[in-house]
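> example.struct
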């Protein structure tokens, strides 16, 4: 089975010290959220300017629960598309909007030069509430993907859940839902974050067994705050291994040391995934560039030289 081969590759990787270039054939993408204040906007654009030279495949901008950041998401994505050479992807959800409203947003994105949508069912605005499709709205992400494809030939990414979506009754149902999204026209799936390579390899094999052939990109969460990661993990059903709690214990008062540890942990995860055959990684940056940049550096990525720099 592929999983045994991949896990054996990962075990072999454990015997090799961390090194600064896995092979030079890694592709990355980055996720940001729309800023709420001028200070946060400055931080966001500093991050984009820092990570942009790494030549990401794309950068995506999230969409708040219940569409609460719709305007800010649109403004941020449109600015990336207008003012940078980085392919921009906009998150779009089914929550609290009719099909006509969502279609109008998608058309606005296309008009702004945005060709990539991250299509999600979305979370209700009230934490813990069950998703209810609004009257006249898209009932789920698969329907949203199909609707977007009728409007324009968007590139579409969808979500995948290595440890099963909290609303899914079981893993089989969850994989069936993922296949419906891909069959509806999605280009790829990006996974929820996870912390151990075996979690991803098991999911990848299960997806292949279910007939899923589209690209699945591992989602990587650099740990900026272990307490925050614990809260997010509890909400989305991600297992936090006990070794992580021991590793980050006592580092809250030492932010620089915490960053060093966090970068090493995430780079090692990526390296093991690389050993198992993965070449593309999606980083949840939380609008902070330092950790993601350090991890990419450890993986061998370097800023792409401009034409002026090359000919100087």
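> example.seq
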């Amino acid at each position: 089975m592929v999983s045994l081969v991949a896990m054996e590759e990962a075990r072999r990787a454990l015997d090799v010290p961390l090194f600064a270039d896995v092979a030079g054939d890694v592709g990355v993408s980055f996720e940001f959220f729309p800023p709420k204040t001028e200070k946060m906007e400055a931080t966001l654009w500093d991050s984009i300017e820092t990570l942009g030279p790494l030549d990401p495949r794309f950068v995506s901008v999230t969409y708040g629960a219940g569409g609460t950041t719709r305007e800010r998401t649109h403004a941020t994505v449109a600015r990336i598309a207008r003012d940078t050479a980085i392919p921009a992807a906009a998150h779009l959800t089914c929550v609290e909007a009719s099909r006509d409203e969502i279609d109008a947003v998608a058309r606005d994105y296309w008009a702004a030069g945005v060709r990539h949508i991250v299509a999600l069912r979305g979370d209700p605005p009230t934490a813990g509430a069950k998703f209810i499709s609004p009257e006249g709205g898209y009932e789920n992400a698969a329907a949203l993907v199909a609707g977007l494809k009728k409007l324009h030939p968007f590139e579409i990414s969808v979500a995948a859940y290595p440890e099963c979506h909290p609303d899914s009754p079981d893993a089989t149902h969850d994989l069936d839902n993922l296949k419906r999204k891909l069959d509806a026209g999605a280009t790829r799936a990006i996974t929820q974050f996870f912390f151990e390579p075996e979690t991803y390899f098991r999911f990848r094999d299960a997806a292949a067994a279910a007939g899923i052939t589209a690209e699945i990109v591992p989602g990587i969460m650099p740990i900026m705050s272990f307490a925050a990661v614990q809260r997010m993990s509890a909400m989305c059903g991600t297992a936090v291994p006990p070794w992580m709690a021991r590793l980050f214990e006592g580092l809250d008062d030492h932010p620089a040391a915490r960053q060093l540890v966090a970068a090493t942990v995430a780079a090692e995860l990526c390296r093991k995934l690389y050993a198992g055959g993965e070449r593309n990684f999606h980083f949840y940056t939380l609008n902070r560039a330092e950790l993601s940049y350090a991890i990419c550096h450890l993986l061998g990525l370097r800023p792409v030289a401009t034409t002026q720099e090359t000919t100087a």
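> remarks
The two ends are 51 Å apart (CA to CA).
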